[in-house]
Specification:
- The chain is about 60% helix and about 0% strand.
- By secondary structure, it is mainly alpha-helical.
- The two termini are about 25 Å apart.
Length: about 180
């Protein structure tokens, strides 16, 4: 647990994202984010406590800071990994809260706050990317026909676009987990 993390300070620092400092920052504009994400996802899949590793935490923060350069498939993978590990931490905290020893319960505080911070940032980042994408979205393509109703190659492109990751599909599960976290005592 070598990371220095104060939830209130981090949330305040996010108000100025351009100047938000990440010690081990990785820029997905310069490098493929796939291997970075795989490293971070693998670490928290192995143990949800790994989020307290500064290198792992900084990979997630870097990808969120530069979310406009991260493909939807990577965003989906990141959210799935964060929510899964966050859920594991919540379940462990609930299980341990039945113990009389307050120190056992407090051991979950840092990872829980770190996951909550990342999920909060993820939601903000996705909403901004979505809003920017909606403003610049091209009008719906007109279906062209050949002869007696033959399809053009354009329909395959439209089908491929609709298969892209959609944040709206992830909202219910994300909110459900947040509600579960809010019930912690």
């Amino acid at each position: 647990m070598g990371v220095s993390f104060e939830l209130q300070d981090e949330l305040q620092a996010l108000q100025d994202i351009a100047n938000y400092d990440i010690p081990n920052e990785q820029d997905p504009n310069n490098n493929d984010p796939g291997p970075l994400l795989q490293q971070a996802v693998g670490a928290i899949a192995h143990s949800s406590e790994e989020i307290t590793d500064p290198e792992i935490f900084d990979i997630f923060r870097s990808l969120l800071k530069h979310s406009d350069a991260v493909a939807g498939a990577y965003m989906s993978k990141m959210l799935d990994a964060l929510l899964s590990a966050f859920g594991i931490q919540i379940d462990a905290a609930i299980r341990d809260s039945k113990e009389e020893d307050q120190q056992i319960v407090m051991a979950h505080k840092l990872p829980l706050e770190m996951y909550a911070f990342l999920v909060n940032w993820f939601v903000s980042a996705v909403e901004k990317v979505k809003a920017m994408g909606e403003e610049n979205a091209p009008p719906a393509p007109v279906k062209a026909r050949r002869g007696w109703g033959g399809k053009t190659g354009a329909s395959r492109a439209v089908a491929k676009k609709t298969a892209q990751w959609m944040w709206i599909d992830q909202i219910p599960g994300t909110l459900e987990l947040i509600c579960k976290a809010l019930k912690l005592k």
